[in-house]
């Protein structure tokens, strides 16, 4: 009888303690996936300017706290600083930007980094190139 009572006591403790030790699902968020227009890894040469639209659509599940989107545009292969930068946080899946100040007669590389505000190691990176006609 004492063994049965002891076994019941141990069983009830296990059912009380185990839920407290359960791991949080906060770090199990889906990897970020995005689509851009112009398309990621594309080369868009001799485009009319002076302004260049950029659409970023986050197609994966939006992280609980949203994302940070960082954009830089600079001359491809140059050590010069970026002529255009943008950084913002959002919960919106669709985000529109306009790249301004593009120098003529050069190839520009646009780098995009999207970082989860819930899990900073969850990032998406993309880029594309263009030149103004």
Descriptive notes:
The chain is an alpha+beta fold and 133 residues long. It has one domain (32-132): Immunoglobulin-like (Sandwich), CATH 2.60.40.2550. It has one helix at residues 2-21; strands at 34-37, 43-47, 52-58, 67-75, 84-90, 94-99, 107-116, 123-132. The strands form 2 sheets. A 5-stranded mixed β-sheet has the order 2-8-7-4-5, with no helix packed on it. The chain has a 3-stranded antiparallel β-sheet with strand order 1-3-6, with no helix packed on it. A hairpin with a 6-residue loop joins strand 7 and strand 8. It starts with a helix and ends with a strand.
Named at the architecture level, the CATH assignment is Sandwich
Number of helices: 1
Shape: elongated
What is the spatial order of strands in the main beta sheet?
2-8-7-4-5
Helix percentage:
10-25%
Structural class: alpha+beta
Instruction: Provide the CATH top-level class.
Output: Mainly Beta
Give the rounded overall mean pLDDT.
Answer: 87
Rg computed from alpha carbons, rounded to a whole number of angstroms: 24 Å
Q: Uncertain regions: pLDDT < 50 for 5+ in a row?
A: none
Number of domains: 1
**How big a fraction of the residues is strand?**
35-45%
The CA-CA distance between the termini, in Å, is: 90 Å
Largest sheet: 5 strands, mixed
SSE layout:
Blueprint: H1 2-21, E1 34-37, E2 43-47, E3 52-58, E4 67-75, E5 84-90, E6 94-99, E7 107-116, E8 123-132
Parallel strand pairs: 2-8
Antiparallel strand pairs: 1-3, 3-6, 4-5, 4-7, 7-8
Question: What characteristics describe this protein?
Answer:
3-stranded antiparallel sheet; single chain; Immunoglobulin-like; alpha+beta; 1 helix; 133 residues; 5-stranded mixed sheet; 44% strand
């Amino acid at each position: 009888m004492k063994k049965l009572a002891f076994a019941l006591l141990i069983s009830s403790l296990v059912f009380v303690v185990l839920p407290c030790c359960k791991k949080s699902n906060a770090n199990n968020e889906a990897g970020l996936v995005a689509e851009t227009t112009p398309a990621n890894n594309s080369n868009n040469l001799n485009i009319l300017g002076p302004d260049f639209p950029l659409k970023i659509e986050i197609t994966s599940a939006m992280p609980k706290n949203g994302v940070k989107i960082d954009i830089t545009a600079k001359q491809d292969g140059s050590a010069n600083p970026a002529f255009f930068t943008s950084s913002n946080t959002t919960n919106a899946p669709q985000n529109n930007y306009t790249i301004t100040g593009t120098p003529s007669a050069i190839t520009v590389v646009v780098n995009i980094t999207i970082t989860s505000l819930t899990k900073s190691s969850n990032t998406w990176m993309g880029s594309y190139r263009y030149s103004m006609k």
